[in-house]
Amino acid sequence: MPLYDYACTRCGRIHEVRHGFDETHDAPCPSCGAPLRRVFNAAPVLFKGSGFYVTDSRGSGSGSKPEKAEKSEKPAAAEKSEKKPSSPASEPAA
Question: Total structural domains in the chain?
Fold first, then answer.
């Protein structure tokens, strides 16, 4: 049997009542005797299984990678000046 929340219309206290789906609860508030109204709560959400996390959608080589921003085009002269000079592979020992 499910557990329902009922709030008092006068004092505001919340009472938990266990009854069936098709039953109604007509009893007054045990504290002050005022009528009760049913309180509806949000259902809990459970994220189980795959597909709920950012890392689940990133497969290796599946092509689902985000697109990179477009590169700004630099003049050819600027690219050459930015490169570091390469060092000789073999230097004579002194």
Answer: 1
